[in-house]
Amino acid sequence: MAKQKAAAINLAFNHGWTYAPAPESTDHIEIKSQYDLFINGKFVAPTQGQYMDSINPANEKKLSSVAIAQTADVDKAVKAAQQASTGWQKLKPSERGKYLFRIARMLQERGRELAIIESLDGGKPIRESRDVDIPLAAAHFFYYAGWADKLAYAFPGRDAQPLGVAGQIIPWNFPLLMAAWKIAPALACGNTVVLKPAETTSLTALKLAEIIQACELPPGVVNIITGAGSTGQALVNHAGINKVAFTGSTQVGKAIQKALAGTGKKYTLELGGKAANIVFEDAAIDQAVEGIINGIFFNQGHVCCAGSRLLVQEGIKDVLLKKLKLRMDTLIVGDPLDKNTDIGAINSKEQFGKIKNYLRIGINEGGNMHQSNCTIPNKGYFIKPTIFTDVAQSSRIVQEEIFGPVLSIQTFRTPEEAIEKANNTPYGLSGGVWTDKGAKVFKVTGKLKAGVIWANTYNKFDPTSPFGGYKESGMGREGGLHGLHAYVKL
Ligand code: TAP
Q: Is 257 in the pocket of ligand 1 (CB under 6 A)?
Protein backbone atom coordinates (compact mmCIF):
# COMPACT_ATOMS: atom_id res chain seq x y z
CA MET A 1 0.00 0.00 0.00
CA ALA A 2 2.76 2.40 0.99
CA LYS A 3 4.70 1.44 -2.14
CA GLN A 4 1.65 2.13 -4.31
CA LYS A 5 1.22 5.51 -2.73
CA ALA A 6 4.88 6.37 -3.17
CA ALA A 7 4.66 5.24 -6.80
CA ALA A 8 1.62 7.49 -7.33
CA ILE A 9 3.48 10.47 -5.91
CA ASN A 10 6.59 9.73 -8.02
CA LEU A 11 4.40 9.45 -11.09
CA ALA A 12 2.87 12.82 -10.30
CA PHE A 13 6.31 14.38 -9.87
CA ASN A 14 7.67 12.79 -13.05
CA HIS A 15 4.80 14.23 -15.06
CA GLY A 16 4.97 17.63 -13.44
CA TRP A 17 1.50 17.17 -11.91
CA THR A 18 0.77 18.48 -8.46
CA TYR A 19 0.14 15.83 -5.83
CA ALA A 20 -3.50 16.37 -4.91
CA PRO A 21 -4.35 15.60 -1.29
CA ALA A 22 -7.75 14.15 -0.49
CA PRO A 23 -8.84 15.63 2.83
CA GLU A 24 -11.80 14.16 4.68
CA SER A 25 -14.79 16.51 4.48
CA THR A 26 -15.79 18.23 7.71
CA ASP A 27 -19.37 18.80 6.48
CA HIS A 28 -21.98 17.88 9.10
CA ILE A 29 -19.35 17.78 11.86
CA GLU A 30 -20.55 19.88 14.74
CA ILE A 31 -17.99 21.49 17.01
CA LYS A 32 -19.65 24.04 19.30
CA SER A 33 -17.94 27.37 19.83
CA GLN A 34 -17.99 26.74 23.59
CA TYR A 35 -18.21 23.67 25.82
CA ASP A 36 -19.29 23.55 29.47
CA LEU A 37 -18.65 20.92 32.14
CA PHE A 38 -20.64 17.69 32.11
CA ILE A 39 -21.87 17.25 35.69
CA ASN A 40 -24.83 15.22 36.93
CA GLY A 41 -26.05 14.50 33.40
CA LYS A 42 -26.10 18.14 32.26
CA PHE A 43 -23.70 20.63 30.69
CA VAL A 44 -23.13 23.38 33.24
CA ALA A 45 -21.03 26.56 33.14
CA PRO A 46 -17.86 26.60 35.29
CA THR A 47 -18.30 28.51 38.57
CA GLN A 48 -15.63 31.09 37.74
CA GLY A 49 -16.74 31.38 34.11
CA GLN A 50 -13.27 30.64 32.73
CA TYR A 51 -12.63 28.93 29.40
CA MET A 52 -9.51 27.87 27.48
CA ASP A 53 -8.91 27.58 23.74
CA SER A 54 -8.71 24.25 21.98
CA ILE A 55 -6.37 24.64 18.99
CA ASN A 56 -6.07 22.64 15.78
CA PRO A 57 -2.33 21.85 15.78
CA ALA A 58 -2.27 21.38 12.00
CA ASN A 59 -3.14 25.04 11.28
CA GLU A 60 -2.88 26.72 14.70
CA LYS A 61 -6.50 27.92 14.45
CA LYS A 62 -8.93 27.88 17.35
CA LEU A 63 -11.52 25.10 17.24
CA SER A 64 -13.52 25.86 20.35
CA SER A 65 -13.49 27.19 23.93
CA VAL A 66 -13.53 24.63 26.71
CA ALA A 67 -14.49 25.25 30.35
CA ILE A 68 -11.88 25.29 33.09
CA ALA A 69 -13.09 23.45 36.20
CA GLN A 70 -11.94 24.94 39.48
CA THR A 71 -11.98 23.29 42.91
CA ALA A 72 -15.68 24.15 43.43
CA ASP A 73 -16.58 22.48 40.10
CA VAL A 74 -14.52 19.40 40.96
CA ASP A 75 -16.39 19.24 44.24
CA LYS A 76 -19.76 19.42 42.43
CA ALA A 77 -18.74 16.64 40.07
CA VAL A 78 -17.48 14.37 42.87
CA LYS A 79 -20.67 14.95 44.88
CA ALA A 80 -22.79 14.11 41.81
CA ALA A 81 -20.80 10.89 41.39
CA GLN A 82 -21.23 10.05 45.10
CA GLN A 83 -24.98 10.61 44.94
CA ALA A 84 -25.30 8.46 41.83
CA SER A 85 -23.22 5.69 43.38
CA THR A 86 -25.88 3.89 45.43
CA GLY A 87 -28.39 3.68 42.59
CA TRP A 88 -25.75 2.51 40.14
CA GLN A 89 -24.51 -0.18 42.53
CA LYS A 90 -28.03 -1.43 43.18
CA LEU A 91 -28.85 -1.72 39.49
CA LYS A 92 -28.86 -5.29 38.20
CA PRO A 93 -25.39 -5.92 36.72
CA SER A 94 -26.94 -6.98 33.41
CA GLU A 95 -28.70 -3.57 33.27
CA ARG A 96 -25.39 -1.82 33.84
CA GLY A 97 -24.02 -3.89 30.99
CA LYS A 98 -26.85 -2.73 28.72
CA TYR A 99 -25.84 0.90 29.19
CA LEU A 100 -22.26 0.05 28.26
CA PHE A 101 -23.42 -1.83 25.16
CA ARG A 102 -25.53 1.20 24.22
CA ILE A 103 -22.54 3.56 24.55
CA ALA A 104 -20.38 1.16 22.49
CA ARG A 105 -22.94 1.03 19.69
CA MET A 106 -23.36 4.79 19.61
CA LEU A 107 -19.57 5.24 19.43
CA GLN A 108 -19.65 3.03 16.36
CA GLU A 109 -22.61 4.86 14.83
CA ARG A 110 -20.91 8.23 15.31
CA GLY A 111 -17.47 6.85 14.37
CA ARG A 112 -16.85 9.13 11.40
CA GLU A 113 -17.69 12.29 13.34
CA LEU A 114 -15.56 11.23 16.31
CA ALA A 115 -12.61 10.31 14.09
CA ILE A 116 -12.67 13.68 12.33
CA ILE A 117 -12.88 15.60 15.60
CA GLU A 118 -10.06 13.51 17.09
CA SER A 119 -7.84 14.35 14.11
CA LEU A 120 -8.78 18.05 14.12
CA ASP A 121 -8.21 18.45 17.85
CA GLY A 122 -5.17 16.23 18.32
CA GLY A 123 -3.37 16.24 14.94
CA LYS A 124 -3.36 12.47 14.34
CA PRO A 125 -3.88 11.12 10.79
CA ILE A 126 -7.52 10.39 10.01
CA ARG A 127 -6.58 6.84 8.98
CA GLU A 128 -5.45 6.18 12.54
CA SER A 129 -8.41 7.88 14.27
CA ARG A 130 -10.84 6.09 11.94
CA ASP A 131 -9.24 2.64 11.96
CA VAL A 132 -7.64 2.45 15.40
CA ASP A 133 -8.74 4.97 18.03
CA ILE A 134 -12.49 5.02 17.57
CA PRO A 135 -13.07 1.30 16.83
CA LEU A 136 -10.87 0.38 19.80
CA ALA A 137 -12.74 2.80 22.08
CA ALA A 138 -16.01 1.10 21.12
CA ALA A 139 -14.37 -2.32 21.56
CA HIS A 140 -13.43 -1.45 25.15
CA PHE A 141 -17.04 -0.59 25.97
CA PHE A 142 -18.26 -3.80 24.29
CA TYR A 143 -15.67 -5.89 26.12
CA TYR A 144 -16.39 -4.52 29.61
CA ALA A 145 -20.16 -4.51 28.96
CA GLY A 146 -19.76 -8.29 28.73
CA TRP A 147 -18.06 -8.47 32.13
CA ALA A 148 -20.70 -6.40 34.00
CA ASP A 149 -22.84 -9.42 34.95
CA LYS A 150 -19.99 -11.95 35.08
CA LEU A 151 -17.82 -10.58 37.89
CA ALA A 152 -18.48 -13.76 39.86
CA TYR A 153 -16.63 -15.64 37.12
CA ALA A 154 -13.83 -13.07 37.02
CA PHE A 155 -13.29 -13.51 40.77
CA PRO A 156 -14.48 -17.06 41.58
CA GLY A 157 -15.40 -17.61 45.22
CA ARG A 158 -14.82 -13.92 46.05
CA ASP A 159 -17.26 -11.10 46.59
CA ALA A 160 -16.27 -8.29 44.21
CA GLN A 161 -17.61 -4.94 45.46
CA PRO A 162 -17.25 -1.57 43.70
CA LEU A 163 -14.87 0.98 45.19
CA GLY A 164 -17.18 4.00 44.92
CA VAL A 165 -16.11 7.07 42.95
CA ALA A 166 -13.18 6.82 40.53
CA GLY A 167 -11.25 9.98 39.67
CA GLN A 168 -9.72 9.45 36.23
CA ILE A 169 -7.12 11.62 34.52
CA ILE A 170 -6.05 11.05 30.93
CA PRO A 171 -3.40 12.36 28.49
CA TRP A 172 -3.67 13.85 24.98
CA ASN A 173 -2.23 11.14 22.79
CA PHE A 174 -5.29 8.85 22.52
CA PRO A 175 -8.05 11.06 23.96
CA LEU A 176 -11.23 9.06 23.33
CA LEU A 177 -9.50 5.70 23.61
CA MET A 178 -8.00 6.57 27.00
CA ALA A 179 -11.44 7.76 28.18
CA ALA A 180 -12.88 4.37 27.14
CA TRP A 181 -10.00 2.47 28.84
CA LYS A 182 -10.85 4.25 32.05
CA ILE A 183 -14.65 4.60 32.07
CA ALA A 184 -15.72 1.18 30.75
CA PRO A 185 -14.16 -1.09 33.43
CA ALA A 186 -15.07 1.35 36.22
CA LEU A 187 -18.77 1.31 35.28
CA ALA A 188 -18.83 -2.43 34.64
CA CYS A 189 -17.67 -2.98 38.23
CA GLY A 190 -20.36 -0.65 39.62
CA ASN A 191 -18.30 2.49 40.24
CA THR A 192 -19.20 6.03 39.25
CA VAL A 193 -16.71 8.32 37.57
CA VAL A 194 -15.28 11.82 37.35
CA LEU A 195 -13.01 12.04 34.29
CA LYS A 196 -10.59 14.83 33.42
CA PRO A 197 -9.32 14.88 29.82
CA ALA A 198 -6.06 16.60 28.79
CA GLU A 199 -6.08 20.33 28.25
CA THR A 200 -5.25 20.19 24.52
CA THR A 201 -7.68 17.40 23.56
CA SER A 202 -10.99 17.66 25.40
CA LEU A 203 -13.35 17.64 22.44
CA THR A 204 -13.97 13.91 21.93
CA ALA A 205 -14.44 13.43 25.67
CA LEU A 206 -17.14 16.11 25.50
CA LYS A 207 -18.69 14.32 22.51
CA LEU A 208 -18.63 11.19 24.65
CA ALA A 209 -20.54 13.19 27.28
CA GLU A 210 -23.19 13.93 24.62
CA ILE A 211 -23.33 10.23 23.78
CA ILE A 212 -23.67 9.31 27.45
CA GLN A 213 -26.55 11.78 27.72
CA ALA A 214 -28.20 10.35 24.60
CA CYS A 215 -27.85 6.83 26.07
CA GLU A 216 -29.72 8.07 29.16
CA LEU A 217 -27.10 6.86 31.58
CA PRO A 218 -28.38 7.85 35.05
CA PRO A 219 -27.20 11.40 35.89
CA GLY A 220 -23.95 11.59 37.84
CA VAL A 221 -22.70 8.11 36.92
CA VAL A 222 -20.17 9.72 34.55
CA ASN A 223 -19.05 13.32 34.98
CA ILE A 224 -16.53 14.90 32.60
CA ILE A 225 -14.72 17.99 33.79
CA THR A 226 -12.24 19.80 31.57
CA GLY A 227 -9.43 22.02 32.73
CA ALA A 228 -5.73 22.32 33.40
CA GLY A 229 -3.28 20.39 35.57
CA SER A 230 -4.70 22.10 38.67
CA THR A 231 -8.11 20.56 37.88
CA GLY A 232 -6.50 17.12 37.90
CA GLN A 233 -4.71 17.95 41.14
CA ALA A 234 -7.98 19.03 42.81
CA LEU A 235 -9.58 15.76 41.69
CA VAL A 236 -6.75 13.65 43.10
CA ASN A 237 -6.90 15.52 46.41
CA HIS A 238 -10.69 15.40 46.82
CA ALA A 239 -11.68 13.39 49.88
CA GLY A 240 -14.73 11.93 48.11
CA ILE A 241 -12.61 10.01 45.59
CA ASN A 242 -12.03 6.32 46.36
CA LYS A 243 -9.71 5.51 43.50
CA VAL A 244 -7.41 7.43 41.17
CA ALA A 245 -6.65 6.15 37.69
CA PHE A 246 -3.96 8.22 36.01
CA THR A 247 -2.36 7.97 32.58
CA GLY A 248 0.28 10.54 31.78
CA SER A 249 3.87 11.50 32.39
CA THR A 250 6.12 9.87 34.97
CA GLN A 251 6.75 13.27 36.54
CA VAL A 252 3.05 13.92 37.26
CA GLY A 253 2.52 10.25 38.17
CA LYS A 254 5.16 10.56 40.90
CA ALA A 255 3.52 13.74 42.25
CA ILE A 256 0.17 11.94 42.38
CA GLN A 257 1.70 8.94 44.16
CA LYS A 258 3.12 11.31 46.80
CA ALA A 259 -0.21 13.11 47.20
CA LEU A 260 -2.02 9.79 47.69
CA ALA A 261 0.41 8.33 50.22
CA GLY A 262 -1.42 7.53 53.45
CA THR A 263 -4.88 8.42 52.12
CA GLY A 264 -6.02 4.82 51.63
CA LYS A 265 -7.21 5.65 48.10
CA LYS A 266 -6.51 2.93 45.56
CA TYR A 267 -4.60 3.96 42.45
CA THR A 268 -3.22 2.84 39.11
CA LEU A 269 -0.53 4.76 37.22
CA GLU A 270 0.13 4.29 33.50
CA LEU A 271 3.22 6.38 32.77
CA GLY A 272 5.96 6.92 30.21
CA GLY A 273 8.12 4.52 28.22
CA LYS A 274 11.28 4.14 26.13
CA ALA A 275 10.83 0.80 24.43
CA ALA A 276 13.53 -1.12 22.61
CA ASN A 277 12.63 -2.73 19.31
CA ILE A 278 15.27 -5.49 18.93
CA VAL A 279 16.05 -6.84 15.45
CA PHE A 280 18.17 -9.99 15.13
CA GLU A 281 20.15 -10.99 12.03
CA ASP A 282 17.76 -13.87 11.32
CA ALA A 283 14.66 -11.61 11.20
CA ALA A 284 12.61 -11.02 8.06
CA ILE A 285 14.15 -7.62 7.38
CA ASP A 286 11.39 -6.05 5.27
CA GLN A 287 8.79 -6.97 7.89
CA ALA A 288 11.03 -5.64 10.62
CA VAL A 289 11.39 -2.34 8.76
CA GLU A 290 7.58 -2.03 8.65
CA GLY A 291 7.47 -2.80 12.37
CA ILE A 292 10.12 -0.18 13.12
CA ILE A 293 8.25 2.45 11.07
CA ASN A 294 4.95 1.60 12.76
CA GLY A 295 6.64 1.40 16.16
CA ILE A 296 8.02 4.93 16.11
CA PHE A 297 5.99 6.95 13.59
CA PHE A 298 2.46 5.78 14.47
CA ASN A 299 0.59 8.75 15.99
CA GLN A 300 3.67 11.00 15.43
CA GLY A 301 5.47 8.93 18.07
CA HIS A 302 3.08 10.25 20.74
CA VAL A 303 2.74 6.72 22.08
CA CYS A 304 3.80 5.59 25.56
CA CYS A 305 4.77 2.17 24.19
CA ALA A 306 6.45 3.54 21.01
CA GLY A 307 9.49 1.60 19.82
CA SER A 308 11.63 4.69 20.24
CA ARG A 309 14.91 2.77 20.49
CA LEU A 310 16.05 0.43 17.74
CA LEU A 311 18.59 -2.22 18.69
CA VAL A 312 19.91 -3.88 15.53
CA GLN A 313 22.35 -6.79 15.37
CA GLU A 314 25.65 -5.61 13.87
CA GLY A 315 25.70 -7.93 10.85
CA ILE A 316 22.54 -6.42 9.32
CA LYS A 317 22.97 -2.81 10.40
CA ASP A 318 23.94 -1.44 6.98
CA VAL A 319 21.27 -3.22 4.98
CA LEU A 320 18.56 -2.46 7.53
CA LEU A 321 19.47 1.22 7.75
CA LYS A 322 19.41 1.53 3.97
CA LYS A 323 15.96 -0.01 3.77
CA LEU A 324 14.72 2.05 6.71
CA LYS A 325 15.80 5.34 5.12
CA LEU A 326 14.19 4.41 1.81
CA ARG A 327 10.95 3.54 3.59
CA MET A 328 11.06 6.77 5.60
CA ASP A 329 11.20 8.72 2.33
CA THR A 330 7.81 7.27 1.32
CA LEU A 331 6.06 8.64 4.42
CA ILE A 332 3.73 11.57 3.84
CA VAL A 333 3.73 14.21 6.57
CA GLY A 334 0.90 16.73 6.50
CA ASP A 335 -2.81 17.40 6.80
CA PRO A 336 -4.24 14.99 9.41
CA LEU A 337 -7.54 14.93 7.51
CA ASP A 338 -5.90 13.70 4.30
CA LYS A 339 -6.41 9.95 4.04
CA ASN A 340 -2.94 9.62 2.46
CA THR A 341 -1.18 11.19 5.42
CA ASP A 342 1.08 8.89 7.43
CA ILE A 343 2.32 11.38 10.00
CA GLY A 344 0.10 14.23 11.17
CA ALA A 345 0.71 17.26 13.36
CA ILE A 346 2.51 17.34 16.69
CA ASN A 347 -0.21 17.71 19.31
CA SER A 348 0.64 21.15 20.71
CA LYS A 349 3.07 24.03 20.49
CA GLU A 350 4.56 22.94 23.80
CA GLN A 351 5.21 19.38 22.61
CA PHE A 352 6.57 20.73 19.30
CA GLY A 353 9.11 22.81 21.23
CA LYS A 354 10.00 19.84 23.44
CA ILE A 355 10.74 17.58 20.45
CA LYS A 356 12.80 20.24 18.68
CA ASN A 357 14.81 20.65 21.85
CA TYR A 358 15.52 16.91 21.91
CA LEU A 359 16.75 17.11 18.29
CA ARG A 360 19.25 19.75 19.42
CA ILE A 361 20.24 17.64 22.43
CA GLY A 362 20.83 14.61 20.16
CA ILE A 363 23.09 16.62 17.84
CA ASN A 364 24.98 18.22 20.73
CA GLU A 365 25.56 14.79 22.25
CA GLY A 366 27.34 13.74 19.05
CA GLY A 367 24.46 11.81 17.45
CA ASN A 368 24.21 11.59 13.68
CA MET A 369 20.75 12.87 12.69
CA HIS A 370 18.96 11.84 9.51
CA GLN A 371 15.52 13.12 8.48
CA SER A 372 13.34 11.94 5.61
CA ASN A 373 13.29 14.05 2.45
CA CYS A 374 9.55 14.84 2.73
CA THR A 375 8.06 18.32 2.61
CA ILE A 376 6.09 19.66 5.56
CA PRO A 377 3.37 22.35 5.66
CA ASN A 378 4.44 25.92 6.45
CA LYS A 379 1.78 26.38 9.10
CA GLY A 380 1.12 24.05 12.04
CA TYR A 381 3.38 21.88 14.16
CA PHE A 382 5.10 19.30 11.98
CA ILE A 383 8.33 17.34 12.41
CA LYS A 384 9.96 15.16 9.76
CA PRO A 385 10.52 11.51 10.63
CA THR A 386 13.94 11.46 12.29
CA ILE A 387 16.54 8.86 13.19
CA PHE A 388 19.74 9.19 15.18
CA THR A 389 22.73 6.85 14.84
CA ASP A 390 26.05 7.03 16.76
CA VAL A 391 24.28 7.42 20.08
CA ALA A 392 25.54 6.09 23.42
CA GLN A 393 23.53 4.19 26.00
CA SER A 394 23.92 7.20 28.28
CA SER A 395 22.68 9.71 25.66
CA ARG A 396 19.63 11.61 26.80
CA ILE A 397 17.81 10.74 23.58
CA VAL A 398 18.35 7.05 24.45
CA GLN A 399 17.30 7.38 28.08
CA GLU A 400 14.47 9.94 28.03
CA GLU A 401 11.00 9.78 26.54
CA ILE A 402 10.76 12.24 23.61
CA PHE A 403 7.16 11.43 22.65
CA GLY A 404 7.73 12.37 19.03
CA PRO A 405 8.78 10.85 15.65
CA VAL A 406 12.40 10.40 16.72
CA LEU A 407 14.18 7.04 16.78
CA SER A 408 17.59 6.38 18.31
CA ILE A 409 19.53 3.48 16.82
CA GLN A 410 22.15 1.30 18.53
CA THR A 411 23.76 -1.99 17.61
CA PHE A 412 24.48 -5.20 19.54
CA ARG A 413 26.40 -8.42 18.96
CA THR A 414 24.83 -11.00 21.27
CA PRO A 415 21.32 -11.54 22.69
CA GLU A 416 22.77 -10.82 26.16
CA GLU A 417 24.03 -7.43 25.01
CA ALA A 418 20.62 -6.63 23.46
CA ILE A 419 18.82 -7.55 26.69
CA GLU A 420 21.28 -5.54 28.76
CA LYS A 421 20.83 -2.43 26.59
CA ALA A 422 17.06 -2.85 26.30
CA ASN A 423 16.64 -2.97 30.09
CA ASN A 424 19.03 -0.12 30.73
CA THR A 425 16.60 2.83 31.03
CA PRO A 426 14.37 3.94 33.92
CA TYR A 427 11.31 2.69 32.03
CA GLY A 428 9.74 -0.74 31.54
CA LEU A 429 6.54 -0.42 29.54
CA SER A 430 6.97 -2.29 26.27
CA GLY A 431 9.35 -3.82 23.75
CA GLY A 432 9.63 -5.68 20.46
CA VAL A 433 11.67 -8.65 19.25
CA TRP A 434 12.21 -9.59 15.59
CA THR A 435 13.67 -13.02 14.85
CA ASP A 436 12.96 -16.14 12.82
CA LYS A 437 13.57 -18.37 15.84
CA GLY A 438 10.71 -19.05 18.24
CA ALA A 439 13.13 -20.20 20.93
CA LYS A 440 14.95 -16.90 20.73
CA VAL A 441 11.67 -15.01 21.13
CA PHE A 442 11.04 -16.83 24.43
CA LYS A 443 14.63 -16.54 25.62
CA VAL A 444 14.82 -12.80 25.02
CA THR A 445 11.30 -11.72 25.97
CA GLY A 446 11.58 -13.64 29.24
CA LYS A 447 14.48 -11.41 30.24
CA LEU A 448 13.07 -8.06 29.18
CA LYS A 449 11.64 -6.04 32.05
CA ALA A 450 8.61 -4.65 30.25
CA GLY A 451 4.85 -5.02 30.66
CA VAL A 452 4.01 -5.59 27.00
CA ILE A 453 6.30 -7.27 24.46
CA TRP A 454 5.48 -7.92 20.82
CA ALA A 455 7.24 -10.55 18.73
CA ASN A 456 7.55 -9.98 14.97
CA THR A 457 4.92 -7.25 15.14
CA TYR A 458 4.41 -3.99 17.00
CA ASN A 459 1.71 -1.71 18.42
CA LYS A 460 -1.09 -4.26 18.42
CA PHE A 461 -3.82 -3.50 20.95
CA ASP A 462 -6.83 -5.44 22.13
CA PRO A 463 -9.27 -4.84 25.00
CA THR A 464 -8.80 -8.40 26.22
CA SER A 465 -5.09 -7.88 26.81
CA PRO A 466 -3.70 -6.27 29.97
CA PHE A 467 -1.44 -3.25 29.57
CA GLY A 468 0.91 -1.58 32.05
CA GLY A 469 4.49 -1.09 33.09
CA TYR A 470 7.37 -1.81 35.46
CA LYS A 471 9.82 0.61 37.04
CA GLU A 472 9.06 4.26 36.17
CA SER A 473 6.42 3.20 33.64
CA GLY A 474 3.87 2.87 36.41
CA MET A 475 1.93 0.37 38.45
CA GLY A 476 -1.22 -1.66 38.00
CA ARG A 477 -2.71 -3.00 34.78
CA GLU A 478 -5.52 -1.81 32.56
CA GLY A 479 -7.36 -3.89 29.98
CA GLY A 480 -8.51 -7.48 30.06
CA LEU A 481 -9.46 -9.33 33.21
CA HIS A 482 -6.61 -7.57 35.03
CA GLY A 483 -8.31 -4.24 34.33
CA LEU A 484 -11.25 -5.30 36.54
CA HIS A 485 -9.01 -5.79 39.59
CA ALA A 486 -8.30 -2.07 39.68
CA TYR A 487 -11.99 -1.25 40.23
CA VAL A 488 -13.13 -3.73 42.89
CA LYS A 489 -12.46 -4.58 46.50
CA LEU A 490 -12.51 -8.30 47.13
P1 TAP B 1 0.84 14.80 31.72
O2 TAP B 1 1.40 16.14 31.51
O3 TAP B 1 1.32 14.01 32.88
O4 TAP B 1 -0.73 14.98 31.80
C5 TAP B 1 -1.61 13.91 31.91
C6 TAP B 1 -2.91 14.39 32.51
O7 TAP B 1 -2.68 14.80 33.86
C8 TAP B 1 -3.51 15.60 31.81
O9 TAP B 1 -4.91 15.52 31.85
C10 TAP B 1 -2.99 16.74 32.67
O11 TAP B 1 -3.74 17.91 32.55
C12 TAP B 1 -3.11 16.15 34.05
N13 TAP B 1 -2.24 16.76 35.05
C14 TAP B 1 -1.19 17.60 34.87
N15 TAP B 1 -0.65 17.93 36.08
C16 TAP B 1 -1.38 17.28 37.01
C17 TAP B 1 -1.31 17.21 38.44
N18 TAP B 1 -0.35 17.85 39.13
N19 TAP B 1 -2.20 16.43 39.10
C20 TAP B 1 -3.15 15.76 38.42
N21 TAP B 1 -3.27 15.80 37.07
C22 TAP B 1 -2.39 16.55 36.37
O23 TAP B 1 1.04 13.87 30.46
P24 TAP B 1 0.73 14.22 28.96
O25 TAP B 1 1.81 15.11 28.47
O26 TAP B 1 -0.69 14.66 28.83
O27 TAP B 1 0.80 12.79 28.28
C28 TAP B 1 1.98 12.25 27.83
C29 TAP B 1 2.52 11.24 28.81
O30 TAP B 1 1.53 10.23 29.04
C31 TAP B 1 3.72 10.51 28.28
O32 TAP B 1 4.70 10.42 29.27
C33 TAP B 1 3.18 9.14 27.95
O34 TAP B 1 4.14 8.12 27.96
C35 TAP B 1 2.13 8.94 28.97
N36 TAP B 1 1.16 7.93 28.54
C37 TAP B 1 1.20 6.71 29.14
C38 TAP B 1 0.33 5.71 28.73
C39 TAP B 1 0.40 4.38 29.39
S40 TAP B 1 -0.84 3.39 29.17
N41 TAP B 1 1.40 4.04 30.13
C42 TAP B 1 -0.59 5.96 27.72
C43 TAP B 1 -0.61 7.21 27.13
C44 TAP B 1 0.28 8.21 27.57
P45 TAP B 1 -3.31 19.03 31.48
O46 TAP B 1 -3.49 18.41 30.14
O47 TAP B 1 -4.24 20.12 31.73
O48 TAP B 1 -1.88 19.36 31.78
A: no
